[in-house]
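Hi there, hope your week has been kind to you so far. Do you reckon you could talk me through the fold, stretch by stretch? I've dropped the whole record in just underneath, so have a look:
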Amino acid sequence: MPVLRISFALLILTLALVPVSHAEDGLSGCVSCHTDEARIKALYTPTEAPPSEGEG
């Protein structure tokens, strides 16, 4: 039972502190990354399909 309480307390503490660390940036890393078109294009690499794929 004490392990459960400690785990729950750590979970709550983690969830409480994570948003605070991102609040200093103005925009969170997710928002700034997912709205940056140049960064998204730089990360995307189309997959090469063998010639037999889709034929037939």
Summary: Helices lie at 2-23, 29-34, 37-43. The radius of gyration is 21 Å.
